[in-house]
Amino acid sequence: MAERFYCPTVTGERAVLEGSEAHHLIHVMRAAAGDHVIVFDGQGHEYLCKVEKISRRDATLKVLERRTVERELPFSLTVAAPLPKGDRQRVLLEKLTELGVTRFVPLVTERTVVRPEKDVVARLTRIVIEASKQCGRNRLMMVAEPESWSSFLEAVDPTAAKYLAHPVESGERERLEAFQKGTLLADKKQESVPIVIAVGPEGGFTDAEVEAARTRGWHLLDLGPRILRVETAAIALAALFGTSHQV
Ligand code: SAM
Fold first, then answer.
1. Which site among 13, 42, 77, 211 is 20 to 30 Å from 155 CA-CA?
2. 223 Cα nearest atom in ligand 1
3. How many CB atoms lie within 10 A of CB 120?
4. In what residue span(s) does the Ribosomal RNA small subunit methyltransferase E methyltransferase domain sit (predicted)?
5. Domain annotation for the chain: domains and CATH numbers
6. Per-residue CA distances from 134 to 5, 61, 124, 138 (Å)
7. Tens place of pLDDT for every residue, the chain, 247 residues?
8. Could you tell me if 165 and 195 are in contact, meaning their C-beta atoms sit under 8 angstroms apart?
9. Which ligand 1 atom lies nearest to the CA of residue 199?
10. pTM, whole model, 2 decimals?
11. Does the C-beta of 166 come closer than 6 Å to ligand 1?
């Protein structure tokens, strides 16, 4: 795949790369006038472009061809999870983007340790852009503002199939149940039902938080006898629900 650049405002026949995208083209790629690159706008469109003019700060590209390339899931997939610590945030956002997740919601639950900072959406979106450049995605995974568990439960799409990852002690029966729910989900996916997945913080959801979800029609999912980190659970679920329609 040709080198890809993000430009949210491709107007008519030109795209202008600025900031880190211009830096990537000019100083990392060392592109020259006449080189061909791919530009995507984050809203689903992709363009074959030719480098027309390079200055110290920006690069002007001429659009040669607008392409319609569909690389999105055929249904909406939301993942809500508290942010893990440090570098694991990058892993989480990168993998969810690659797996085609539509929207990520940073959750704040009772036991959430990492409190999202003020400009968390912009910081996480930068990771989404980098991952989209690499994986060929033309529509950005939306990063929502951080939301408390109670307001998230209130706001969630009532038509969605809703799954809460929650480890259970007694094992087999619940795991079987989880498997059946997976099958149910596969059926629903064919009808393009939106899917919402929630993962708890390192300390887990409280009993009250689980109960609040259950009373609103959420299904519990047990992912097996080992305790997964937040990002592992979120990525595993996104892979389970996001890739199964393609196989
Ligand atoms: N001690 C916590 C508990 O019992 O909930 C473990 C929390 S775990 C590190 C973080 C989150 O990942 C959990 O709240 C849950 O959403 C998800 N998770 C981890 N392992 C899981 C499993 N085996 N089954 C279902 N969910 C799991």
1. 42
2. 24
3. 17
4. 72-240
5. 4-67 (2.40.240.20), 77-246 (3.40.1280.10)
6. 10, 20, 16, 11
7. 678 999 999 987 999 999 999 999 999 989 999 999 999 999 999 999 999 999 988 999 999 999 888 899 999 999 999 999 999 999 999 999 999 999 999 999 999 989 999 999 999 999 999 999 999 999 999 999 999 999 999 999 999 999 999 998 765 556 656 666 666 666 566 668 899 999 999 999 999 999 999 999 999 999 888 999 999 999 999 998 887 555 3
8. no
9. 16
10. 0.91
11. yes
Whether the CB of 165 sits within 6 Å of ligand 1: yes
Residue 233, ligand 1, Cβ within 6 A: yes
Q: Which of 122, 103, 86, 123 is nearest to 202 (CA)?
A: 86
200 lines ligand 1 (CB under 6 A): yes
Residue 17 token pair: 């790369």
What value of ipTM does the predicted structure carry?
Answer: 0.98
